[in-house]
Design brief:
Low-confidence stretches: 1-12
CATH topology of the largest domain: Phosphorylase Kinase, domain 1
Largest sheet: 5 strands, antiparallel
Distance between the termini: 53 Å
Helix content: 25-40%
Shape: globular
Structural class: alpha+beta
Number of domains: 3
CATH class of the largest domain: Alpha Beta
């Protein structure tokens, strides 16, 4: 298989046929994808003629979306991009990212997001910037006290900025729906038997009671799943990605998700749920 005289990678599409994402085979076909990315040869990019396209699957959610890395070779050099192909809602995600970027989270900002470059409706594909840097999770897993302290502070400052200035978009967080989801999980855990059954039931009752006692809080823009696996710490830049679950919610929801995710990491990686408590404290105090 060749594009403009240069060899490309042959990809076996058969294993991906059952992913339930109709346009995914076309995205993974270098020749087909090259046709759709030809616009990068013109303004404002002016990257030159595409001579080679390579695609690598990073993560797939069957029946929903798939993330790929796209490598382009052109007359002016090599370029790397991230693509997300959706079953639906791709345009809405792209438009949300554009608005967030334009509200102060652009490529030159200290606190930013991957820059959305294009939405290709025929492929249901969002093309965005590939950000170079280390995941925040790496600092918490392998770094010393200074590393995870700096990481916790930078993650907290990004979230504070986002909650303060980002435009409100997407659905409102449905607390009742969330409690219904938690109740289902509680029952699944209870099905495993004692002592988990009793503990899960008590925990859900406490959560339900706490939720009923909550006072109204002014909602703001929400990420939806803010955690250390979706934050890149680069030189002079903190970048949060994965905007599929963006919404409007109580700001403490994103804070709580980040803390809970660190607790899970602490338990799974270090064997103690409290091993990253110092990082959690820095995050909460920032």
């Amino acid at each position: 298989m060749e594009i403009a005289g240069e060899e490309t990678v042959l990809i076996d599409l058969a294993p991906l046929a059952d992913q339930g994402i109709p346009t995914l085979p076309a995205v993974l076909d270098p020749v087909e994808l090259c046709k759709h990315l030809a616009f990068f040869s013109g303004p404002p990019w002016q990257w030159g003629q595409l001579t080679d396209v390579r695609v690598q699957v990073l993560k797939c959610h069957s029946g929903s979306r798939c993330t790929v890395q796209i490598a382009l070779r052109t007359g002016t050099g090599a370029y790397a991009l991230i693509g997300k192909v959706y079953v639906s809602n791709g345009l809405e995600i792209y438009q949300a990212m554009k608005r967030i970027s334009q509200s102060g989270f652009g490529p030159e900002a200290e606190f930013s997001i991957p820059q959305p470059l294009a939405f290709l409706p025929e492929l249901h594909l969002v093309v965005q910037e590939l950000v170079s840097g280390r995941l925040a999770q790496e600092f918490f897993m392998t770094g010393g006290e200074r590393d995870y302290s700096v990481a916790a502070e930078r993650c907290a400052r990004w979230l504070a900025r986002f909650h303060a200035v980002a435009p409100k978009m997407g659905p409102g967080f449905d607390l009742n729906g969330y409690l219904t989801s938690l109740e289902r999980w509680s029952r699944r855990i209870a099905d495993l038997g004692e002592p988990l059954a009793t503990k899960a039931g008590r925990l859900f009752q406490r959560l339900e009671g706490t939720a009923a006692a909550l006072s109204p809080v002014k909602a703001c823009a929400g990420h939806g799943s803010y955690c250390q696996t979706q934050i890149i710490l680069a030189n002079g830049r903190v970048v949060t990605f994965d905007w599929d679950g963006h919404d409007v919610a109580d700001p403490s929801r994103d804070v709580a998700r980040f803390v809970a995710s660190l607790k899970r990491l602490a338990l799974g990686h270090f064997g103690s749920i409290r091993s990253l408590d110092a990082a959690v404290e820095i995050f909460l105090k920032t």
